[in-house]
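#onboarding

Welcome to the new folks! Below is a worked example of what a typical request in this channel looks like: someone posts a single protein sequence, and someone else replies with the predicted structure as tokens. Don't worry about understanding the tokens yet, we'll cover that in week two.

Example request:
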Amino acid sequence: MDKTNINKEYTNGEITIVWQSSKCIHSANCVKHLSSVFQPQQHPWINMENATTEQIIATVTKCPSGALSVKKNK
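Example response:
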């Protein structure tokens, strides 16, 4: 398996966060802004139950590389 391009999805029922490893520049903006959700030392590293959907969206939009994105669930 090619570990340089891993795509993972995390959902809370309302939204799904998509993480693309190949785009990630490890700026840690997500961790700095919402460490209750983004915990790189844990597995899974994104724990969406630890914040509101609005807080998560606001943090994901600060990702400078576009490695994190949000899809609204239907």
